[in-house]
From TrEMBL, chain A:
It holds the Pfam family 2Fe-2S_thioredx. InterPro entries: NuoE-like, NuoE_dom, NuoE_N, Thioredoxin-like_sf. Residues 1-25, 217-266 are annotated as: Disordered. Keywords: 2Fe-2S, Iron, Iron-sulfur, Metal-binding. It comes from the Bacteria. This is NADH dehydrogenase subunit E.
Automatic annotation (TrEMBL), chain B:
Belongs to the complex I 51 kDa subunit family. Signal peptide: none annotated. The keyword Glycoprotein does not apply. It comes from Haloechinothrix alba. The lineage of its organism: Bacteria, Bacillati, Actinomycetota, Actinomycetes, Pseudonocardiales. GO terms for molecular function: 4 iron, 4 sulfur cluster binding; FMN binding; metal ion binding; NAD binding; NADH dehydrogenase (ubiquinone) activity; quinone binding. Its EC number is 7.1.1.-. This is NADH-quinone oxidoreductase subunit F. PROSITE patterns: COMPLEX1_51K_1 (PS00644), COMPLEX1_51K_2 (PS00645). NDH-1 shuttles electrons from NADH, via FMN and iron-sulfur (Fe-S) centers, to quinones in the respiratory chain. Residues 328-373 form the NADH-ubiquinone oxidoreductase 51kDa subunit iron-sulphur binding domain. Keywords: 4Fe-4S, Flavoprotein, FMN, Iron, Iron-sulfur, Metal-binding, NAD, Quinone, Translocase.
């Protein structure tokens, strides 16, 4: 550990090492991923700011943050592996074990829980479990990475409380769920189907979602446009605006061409 | 007197493809930025100060005053950082806003950045909302292509670059200094203030962190002016505000109303309590704001009104719970959340939330004692005000307010335990003993 760590450190201090051609970084990440990493780094005034997106990028390749993934980030950013690990363990979206094809996150914070979120989570854990043992938080039904495999987690407030109880698949929203609708959803996922989210783009898989979180959207512009245009206008979201429209309520009318305040020049 | 609902930020949400640049431009989008860029930064800071726009992210700090803290020179690079890490339990306004009308945020960013002499802007979006990232990223690209971003914006000579950045699942990163650490690629741990971000923020350079709703309001103030903005809301809390109503109501959703609207009025808009089951408790602005009860139906929900009644306006996230919900259970669930989200930097918050959650779990499990209530309050007293940031303060809010208004319910849980313990024997002997001591 310490020796490898020392090597990594000294390698990291040596800017002449090109991570793309350095065999010790592993072959997990191909030239395209290294190019993407450099692209992410170029977005920021200081390279370290690229760490969170780089970790999403790493997950898009392996479905979790592996030892190689940590080395990959450390090399690109001239950080120690310990510094990268410290960040990985802080954030819940970075998975330490391989994730299933799909990640199902059920909000079990108070509001969702009171409206059935706890029941949804419990039912899914039981349903996805085997031999009477329910699945636990961040456990996977099926073999991670293989089609139809599902990792389940309970999530904190997902900021969709007016649509409670909610869950997400690969971070796309499925609103107003019940234990039955959630079971139907995961069964479809296990059969290789991809039901449409209530709000969000058509499902792909966990890894593809992670690539987008790193800031890489589909190259095909038509695909990209249709993803962006995928539905979001839940009735709940526009309820106030619609009620106002129906009743003729408005904000006060804006005056024409009101000047900016005069300020004394110092 | 304003109408009960005053759609300003939420008005475009009804339009088809409201997130596209073409729609935005048809609906007066990018008119405010033209006007703003003809003015001076000083004029814009003065405008926002006079309008009395207060931060919509929870604390309610006057936005113009915050901008005024930025240095007037450009010796160092200035940064504008948008806090789009929406995660306060109950809060669900910024994400629909960014999904439905991302260009209003971008236009607000250009005007605000110009006012504070920043040429780089980062939008830190909560990682769990992929569709929001998608919409924002597409909108930023459109804005670049149309010349609203990049160099020499609309021929004004002003340059601005915006980077959309995804977080990775940490509630604490909604705290502005933790957000900055996170944006620097570190663990999201709050910094000691002072120095404040305006003096030493991102990369130790002058930085302003503002909430999404705050910045999205700016273009409207530029177009409508101070008097128009102040025609809504109250003297010290002017303007419209998105109230997010969730829970046991007939029609949960987003209702944009003048600040100072009461829950009674909002409940009326939202169709009343679900199935007519009476209201028991609610939060005015997320789980970090002390609970209210049916006694508080007529409290004006502005920054002053909520504070005078013993809570805080927070994010105007109204979570409504009816009589079927146990207060100790709800408080336990929130405390488990804070335990999970405490970053661990400050001992009172890290250890306090850990022990508070255990005590509450024990009580809800029917193994609590009356003494536990005093222990809870004692631990809360040792957490409140004793950490770098407000997470610890928020964590104790549901507990202290829950006990304040519903002590009998906590007592009832413990009495049930004492009765059942006395009746049984053997394994329960110890808990019966603890119960007997109190």
């Amino acid at each position: 550990m310490t020796e490898a760590h020392e090597q990594a450190r000294s390698a990291a201090r040596e800017p002449s090492v090109d991570p793309a051609t350095d065999p010790s970084a592993g072959e997990v990440f191909d030239a395209d991923i290294h190019a993407k990493a450099r692209e992410v780094i170029a977005r920021y005034p200081q390279s370290r700011s690229a760490l969170l997106p780089l970790l999403h990028l790493v997950q898009s390749v392996q479905g979790y943050v592996s030892r190689e993934g940590i080395t990959f980030c450390a090399r690109h950013l001239d950080l120690s592996e310990a510094e990268v690990s410290g960040v990985v363990t802080f954030y819940t979206m970075y998975k330490r074990r391989p994730c299933g094809q799909h990640l199902v996150s059920v909000c079990t914070n108070t509001l969702c829980a009171a409206l059935g979120g706890d029941a949804v989570y419990r039912r899914l854990c039981e349903h996805l479990g085997e031999e009477g043992r329910p699945l636990g938080h961040e456990e996977t039904a099926g073999t991670p990475g293989e089609q139809g495999s599902i990792t389940i987690e309970h999530a904190e407030c997902l900021a969709a409380c007016d649509l409670a109880p909610v869950l997400q698949v690969n971070y796309e929203y499925f609103d107003n769920q019940s234990p039955d609708s959630a079971v139907e959803l995961v069964d479809a996922l296990r059969n290789g189907d991809k039901p449409a989210p209530t709000r969000g783009a058509p499902l792909t898989d966990f890894r593809s979602a992670e690539l987008q979180l790193a800031g890489f959207f589909p190259d095909d512009s038509e695909q990209s446009r249709s993803d962006v245009d995928a539905p979001t206008a839940a009735e709940e979201t526009v309820r106030g605006a619609r009620l106002a429209q129906d009743r003729g309520w408005t904000a006060p009318a804006m005056p024409d061409d009101v000047a900016l305040p005069e300020v004394e020049q110092k | 007197m304003s109408d009960p609902i005053t759609p300003v930020l939420t008005k475009r949400w009804l339009s088809p493809n409201s997130w596209r640049l073409s729609t935005y431009e048809q609906l007066e989008g990018y008119t405010a930025v033209r006007k703003a860029l003809r003015g001076t930064p000083e004029q814009l800071v003065s405008l926002i100060k006079e309008a009395g726009l207060r931060g919509r992210g929870g604390a309610g700090f006057p936005a113009g005053v915050k901008w005024g803290f930025m240095p007037k020179d450009e010796e160092k690079p200035h940064y504008l950082v948008i806090n789009a890490d929406e995660g306060e339990p109950g809060t669900c306004k910024d994400i629909p806003l960014m999904m439905a009308d991302p260009h209003s945020l971008i236009e607000g960013c250009i005007i605000s950045a110009y006012a504070m002499r920043a040429h780089r802007c980062f939008i830190y979006v909560r990682g769990e909302v992929l569709h929001c990232m998608r919409r924002l990223s597409a909108a930023v690209s459109e804005a670049y292509e149309a010349g609203y971003l990049g160099s020499d914006i609309l021929g004004s000579g002003f340059d601005l670059d915006i980077t959309v950045h995804a977080g990775a699942g940490a509630y604490i990163c909604g705290e502005e200094t933790a957000l900055l650490d996170s944006l620097e690629g570190r663990r999201g741990e709050p910094r000691l203030k002072p120095p404040f971000p305006a003096a030493s923020g991102l990369y130790a350079q002058p930085t302003t962190v503002n909430n999404v709703e705050t910045i999205a309001t700016v273009p409207f103030i530029v177009n409508g002016g101070v008097d128009w903005f102040r025609a809504m809301g109250t003297e010290k809390s002017p303007g419209p505000k998105i109230y997010s109503i969730s829970g046991h109501v007939e029609h949960p959703g987003q209702y944009e109303a003048p600040l100072g609207t009461t829950l009674r009025e909002l409940l009326d808009l939202a169709g009343g309590m679900k199935d007519g089951i009476p209201l028991k408790f609610w939060t005015p602005g997320g789980s970090s704001t002390p609970l209210f009860t049916a006694e508080h139906l007529d409290v004006p929900l502005d920054f002053e009104g909520a504070a005078e009644a013993g809570s805080m306006l927070g994010t105007t996230a109204l979570m409504i719970f009816n009589e079927t919900v146990s207060v100790p259970w709800a408080v336990m669930k929130w405390t488990q959340f804070y335990r999970h989200e405490s970053c661990g930097k400050c001992t009172p918050c890290r250890e306090g939330t850990y022990w508070l959650a255990q005590i509450l779990e024990r009580m809800v499990d029917g193994r609590g004692t009356e003494e536990d209530i005093e222990t809870l309050l004692d631990v809360c007293d040792n957490v409140l005000g004793r950490s770098f940031c407000a997470l610890g303060d928020g964590a104790v809010s549901p507990i202290t307010s829950g006990i304040q208004y519903f002590r009998s319910e906590f007592l009832e849980l413990c009495r049930q335990n004492a009765t059942s313990s006395a009746a049984s024997s053997g394994g329960d002997a110890q808990s019966a003993l603890v119960g007997a001591q109190s």
